[in-house]
Specification:
This protein is α/β, with parallel strands linked by helices. It is built from 9 helices and 4 strands, in the order H-E-H-E-H-H-H-H-E-H-E-H-H. The longest helix has 16 residues. The two termini are 25 Å apart.
């Protein structure tokens, strides 16, 4: 996570040196949402705004997700999580099998296990690194108050992997934070509610354009 944040910071600083812009609106989904929150805490001078989609605030999401999959998942889905996701042991074949079987849990609107909700392939090395070495200890919660830019948080009510209850505290910690829970969506908001997804982001950008 820290490496991701530092690479993004270096890019923004370089663009500033080239007189393009000195701050950026960071839009992060899932792992990207986690990194985006950390980025705004670490580099507030580079952050004009945040759009956090299906992200989360701390390692507590992991214990909740592990409990949740045992309740809502079938035998194959539980096994895929225990064999590949939690230990961070994906290769290309197991990653494809994972998303094929897990799609109905990631996206509420999908019922066929053969449909992958993602337009691009999973970044396997990033996923493995995160689950092996990072997800079990990060916690932005004590430092959320340091984020002073406008923030939009979008979460799905049926999100099993980054449950919405962990982001519901963000508006209490950040003055200019707005939270929208998609009541009929899972983790893949863009799949379950593409129209509302686009509307929320466009409305946020229009509302806070003067701040950016």
């Amino acid at each position: 996570i820290n490496k991701t944040m530092d690479v993004a910071a270096a890019l923004i600083k370089k663009l500033g040196e080239l007189h393009y812009f000195k701050k950026a609106i960071i839009h992060g989904t899932s792992y990207g949402g986690i990194a985006a929150l950390g980025f705004a805490i670490k580099y507030p001078e580079l952050t004009a705004g945040l759009i956090i989609v299906s992200g989360t605030t701390s390692y507590h999401f992991l214990e909740l997700a592990k409990a949740k999959i045992k309740v809502i998942g079938n035998e194959a889905q539980v096994a895929l999580c225990e064999n590949y996701l939690w230990p961070g042991r994906f290769d290309e074949n197991s990653a494809e099998a994972f998303f094929q079987h897990m799609t109905p849990i990631y996206a509420k609107s999908v019922t066929e296990v053969t449909e992958n909700p993602y337009a691009s392939s999973c970044a396997i090395s990033v996923t493995n690194q995160a689950f092996k070495n990072e997800y079990d200890h990060f916690d932005w919660t004590p430092d959320l108050h340091k984020i002073t830019c406008p923030v939009l948080i979008l979460a799905g009510r049926y999100d099993w992997i980054t449950p919405p209850e962990l982001v519901e505290i963000i508006p209490e910690k950040i003055k200019h934070a707005m939270l929208t829970i998609f009541e009929e969506a899972g983790h893949a908001l863009f799949k379950d509610a593409p129209g509302q997804y686009k509307k929320e982001i466009t409305g946020f950008l229009n509302k806070f354009a003067v701040c950016f």
